[in-house]
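Our example copied in:
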Amino acid sequence: MSSTENDGRRSQPRKRPLWETQFPYTWDADDLISRRQMLRFAVLASGALFAATGVLAGIGYVRERSRGTRQPIVNATDVPVGGVHYFNYPDEDSQALLLHLSDGRFVAYSGKCTHLSCAVYWDQPEKRLRCPCHNGEFAPETGDAIAGPPNRPLPKIVLDQQGGMIYAVKEDLS
């Protein structure tokens, strides 16, 4: 098609939609920040985030890895072999559970799943500690995660038994 129409006038060039136009390199505001300044900012921000991560790791390393005080839980004869006793430790808002294993030992763990802090319960028929939120499972003998998304063991509660009474001594967070 020629550039002239039937009446002899030149046709106007077609105006492109905005999405088809090239990036405006000659934009007046492009001198507000240069590539060098942007790169400098990105490097400094990355370095600051790396340093903050190191500081937080250091604080976590030197922080005390246990909490709680000596507290009576239950009389040992009140928990049958293979049974469980739920209690609050180290404070009233923290759930825990005491298991009487088939070999006669008592073990206690935090009742909060290490994945998303859901409640953990004792599944008597399966002989497993379970988290119902995402089908997490923990070994009753060690508290280690054995199935599901949790990848850390349950925090252990150190126990002491005197005169038939079982005491929670501290919660070991390591």
Summary: The chain has a mean pLDDT of 86. The two ends are 80 Å apart (CA to CA).
